[in-house]
Write a structure and sequence with these properties.
4 domains, seven-stranded mixed sheet, Rossmann fold, single chain, five-stranded parallel sheet, 17 strands, globular
């Protein structure tokens, strides 16, 4: 029995012998079934300490083993979509001894990473890229006469994104030998939505259909030769009939050979199917595999959405370990404030791209179901959909992670900002996000938002200012982006009444004559701490909370810059083309040629690690600000 009910106390044995897939291929089927248990046990106990994407990885243990058993990896390429399900893959490909460092600073990434292993074909972190990646690799292999196979593993949640269909359509047209594994667990992060998800549902393709087929075969066989003849005809028609009862007709229409659905936790079936697919050399094949998200750990099976991505937890109970920081999170403030606004204004509607929990919109969805829209993993559609709502007089709020909003910049420019529509984009997880690393850090949004006409961009210094900015956005006549960080706020009390902020106006928090500190958003409080430390050294720093990237408070900034003669800007964003660049351009336009230091992230991708560590590395915490001011003044 697998470890559904409890974890064993035995030290792993088979897993200790697996240093590469070559070792896996020497095992018997019973040994592989024991190894599956050990893999699950290792994943659960490790993620309980490090946090991570637990349920997705537990759901593909057997599938991962079967893929490495059948295909000649790394010569044959496995392309994981998103990559948050790749923990078993890491354990089987030479990273067992380092697995306890998962998502830790300087440790293993929580996602596939090319620099980490030759078995990691691509850097993955966002959904719906695997088919396009895989088709490109397959096309390159064909040009170079490389007989190696290419397998793209994609979840049914990722299939809701347009890019997946673009890849399928092109693959069918090219006719290359690409294998697509559709991992169907009826989940993306939260439960899947949309017509396609219903089409792929196991309710029509699981045990009921198989039992019906077995029952018909038994009855026909009882009719002697007549029954056998009928059964032969039916078997020849099976492929045609299957198209009416499964999603086969959809993929067959795209010129894929469709196989499935098959059970995703039966190693013998998986291996036999994949061996047949491996030897198929007549165009693209899609294998539909039914899996259980969170398989092998009851709390994750029961509540897979809660265990999609989770912090450290107690293995016995499944309960998260308590966070010592009691301050309310920015995400929760956003969700609660939007509910308050919706009670006052019936025009308020909320949109999410498959992340109602992660963006704080579950309370809104429960209280205002008719004004809540989950569009699935389709950020581009979400933005233009919001524009359509705004055209008819509603006030849409699209809550999305900063890193995922990167996928919809064209829609923001063309469909929202060009017609100047009152759509608010709530950018959660702006700045560095911690252990999820470079694919999830939101350190580019200030840069790619700064050049868009008609757009107002706000960044609150604390949770109270966040709620006031949401109120301001609701009553603004044009598009707004409101960016806020992951995690807890500053512990500031929320005011009972809303106040509308004046667009483009900052606030002077501290006077000083030696240097002007311009911190944006979550860098305001570290700047105030730095100013207090500098005062102890005899340096008087003025501190302004700009509140807005667009438009800048030109008068407030330039007047204090002229008074102090030195300027330091601080942002939880790339130092290129962001807030600091805007300030520098402003000063230049006003003829203020002053010493300016821009603090932000260097021109490189930021690795995973604790937020505080990454802020310190970039010099945008209080210590770094003090050092930069000292250096600037010495010059």
């Amino acid at each position: 029995m697998l470890i559904v009910d409890s974890l064993t106390d035995q030290t792993s044995f088979l897993l200790d012998t697996i240093d590469s897939p070559c070792d896996l291929r020497r095992l018997s089927l019973p040994q592989m079934e024991l190894l599956a248990q050990e893999l699950r046990e290792t994943i659960i106990t490790t993620v309980a300490e490090t946090g991570g994407h637990l349920a997705p990885s537990l759901g593909v243990v057997e599938l991962t083993m079967a893929l490495h058993y059948v295909f000649d990896t790394p010569r044959d390429r496995l392309v994981w979509d998103v990559g948050h399900q790749a923990y078993a893959h890491k354990l089987l490909t030479g990273r067992r001894d380092r697995f306890t460092t998962l998502r830790q600073y300087k440790g293993l990434s929580g996602f596939p990473k090319r620099g980490e292993s030759e078995y990691d074909t691509v850097e993955a972190g966002h959904s719906s890229t695997s088919i396009s990646y895989g088709l490109g690799i397959a096309a390159a292999k064909a040009i170079q006469a490389d007989p190696g196979k290419v397998v793209a593993i994609i979840g049914d949640g990722s299939m809701t994104a347009g890019m997946a269909f673009e890849g399928l359509n092109h693959a069918g047209d090219l006719g290359r030998n690409l294998v697509v594994i559709l991992n169907d667990n009826e989940m993306s992060i939260s439960r899947n939505v949309g017509a396609l998800s219903s089409f792929l549902s196991r309710k029509m393709t699981g045990k009921t259909i198989r039992r019906l087929r077995d029952h018909i075969e038994e009855r026909l066989m009882a009719l002697s030769s007549v029954g056998e003849n009928i059964l032969t005809v039916l078997r020849k028609s099976e492929e045609s009939l299957k198209g009416f009862f499964t999603p086969g007709m959809l993929f067959e229409a795209l010129k894929f050979k469709y196989i499935g659905p098959i059970p995703g936790h039966e190693l013998e079936d998986l291996i036999a199917t994949l061996e047949n697919v491996r030897d198929h050399n007549h165009g693209p094949v899609l294998v539909h595999v039914i899996t259980t998200k969170g398989k092998g750990y009851k709390p994750a099976e029961t509540h897979p959405g809660d265990y999609h991505g989770i912090g450290p937890f107690d293995v016995t109970t499944g309960a998260p370990k308590k966070n010592k920081n009691a301050a309310i999170s920015y995400t929760k403030v956003f969700g609660e404030t939007l509910c308050r606004l919706a009670r006052q204004d019936k025009r308020v509607v909320a949109i999410t791209a498959a992340m109602p929990g992660g963006t704080g919109l579950l309370p809104f969805s429960a209280e205002f179901p008719e004004r809540f829209f989950d569009v699935g993993i389709a950020e581009q559609h979400a933005v233009t959909f919001a524009a359509g709502l705004a055209l008819e007089g509603l006030r849409p709020f699209f809550a999305v992670y900063s890193s995922f909003m990167q996928r919809a910049v064209d829609q923001l420019i063309h469909d929202v900002c060009l017609p100047n529509l009152p759509v608010t984009i709530a950018l959660d997880r702006s700045g560095v996000v911690g252990a999820d690393g470079p694919t999830h850090h939101g350190v580019f949004d200030l840069s790619f938002l700064s050049f868009i006409p008609n757009l107002t961009v706000m960044a609150p210094k604390d949770e109270n200012e966040l709620q006031q900015m949401l109120f301001t956005a609701l009553h603004h006549s044009g598009p707004v982006v409101l960016r806020y960080p992951r995690g807890s706020g500053e512990g500031v009390a929320l005011e009972a009444t809303f106040q509308r902020l004046k667009i483009g106006k900052g606030e002077l928090l501290r006077e000083g004559g030696d240097v002007l500190l311009l911190p944006l958003g979550n860098r305001v409080y570290p700047a105030l701490t730095a100013a207090a430390r500098l005062a102890e050294q005899g340096v008087n720093a003025a501190v302004i909370n700009p509140r807005f990237l667009k438009p800048l408070d030109t008068e407030l900034i330039t007047s204090w810059a002229a008074q102090t003669g030195h300027v330091v800007t601080i942002e939880d964003n790339s130092a290129l083309s962001g807030f600091g660049s805007g300030v520098l351009q402003l000063l230049n336009e006003r003829g203020l040629h002053l010493p300016v230091k821009i603090l932000g992230y260097a021109d490189s991708f930021v690795e995973h690690g604790p937020q505080a560590t990454l802020w310190n590395n970039a010099g945008i915490d209080a210590d770094g600000i003090v050092r930069s001011v000292q250096k600037l003044l010495r010059k």
